[in-house]
Specification:
201 residues, alpha/beta, Rossmann fold, five-stranded parallel sheet, four-stranded mixed sheet, 11 strands, 40% helix, 23% strand, binds adenosine-5'-diphosphate, binds guanosine-5'-monophosphate
């Protein structure tokens, strides 16, 4: 008589950061399309929507007053001011997904990444790098949704961010989307299989 082992795995909390325009949303979409048991958290922001962005899908767009009310009520897992706007991760969504055994991806800035690491030491932090600054500029221009002054501000922030990745676990270069998403999928798979996250019955 043989009986097989049942291995259960803890869900992952994955943070994807990198300068604006590096391709975080593009890469995260590919990960979501290929990993069945992982979901993306939708952040709350005071930034106005860009053309084509949908409330509740890309972000929850709120006023500064509403953002502050939720922040003061402790509704965010982490929050930060980025490029002059507030952004926050809703705690209830992330906690209930993890409790239900579903992994969560957060597409957030470095300040947020460091807060998450403090609260969830087992979180997996991935930092996306552009191949070079000219390519980053071209991607920001190509997105064609921001004013020139906004793009300039984002490029200046990018130069600072590209020197602050030392709290991250992995650096992945987004030269080719397929390869970059493939590297992220390898990281997610390997981290899921770690002994510390596995229980055998
Ligand atoms: P982020 O979420 O980091 O701000 P986006 O995912 O919006 O960046 O990508 C910015 C722009 O760059 C988009 O127009 C996207 O289609 C493009 N892009 C993303 N990754 C690549 C890539 N590897 N090669 C070429 N263009 C890319
Ligand atoms: P964008 O305005 O281009 O959508 O995002 C600007 C920056 O804010 C990006 O670096 C993005 O990752 C970050 N961001 C988006 N949502 C959150 C969030 O909930 N928390 C934090 N800390 N950063 C966020």
């Amino acid at each position: 008589m043989t009986s097989s082992f049942t291995v259960s795995r803890e869900p992952l909390l994955v943070v994807v950061s990198g300068p604006s325009g590096v391709g975080k949303s593009t890469v995260v979409d590919r990960i979501l399309a290929r990993v069945p048991d992982i979901v993306a958290s939708v952040s709350v922001t005071t930034r106005p929507p860009r053309g084509g962005e949908r409330d509740g899908f890309d972000y929850f767009f709120v006023t500064r007053e509403e953002f502050e009310r939720r922040r003061d009520a402790g509704e965010y897992l982490e929050w930060a001011e980025v490029h002059g706007n507030f952004y926050g991760t809703p705690a209830a969504f992330v906690e209930s997904a993890l409790a239900a055994g579903t992994g969560v991806i957060l597409e957030i800035d470095i300040q947020g990444g460091m807060s998450v690491r403090g609260r969830f030491p087992g979180a997996v932090l991935i930092f996306l790098f552009p191949p070079d600054l000219e390519t980053l500029r071209a991607r920001l221009d190509g997105r064609a949704t921001d004013e020139e002054a906004v793009i300039r501000c984002r490029l200046e922030n990018a130069k600072r961010e590209l020197a602050r990745f030392d709290g991250y676990d992995y650096i992945v270069v987004n030269d080719d989307v397929e390869r970059c998403a493939g590297d992220c999928l390898s990281i997610i798979r390997a981290e899921t299989l770690r002994r510390e996250r596995s229980t055998i019955a």
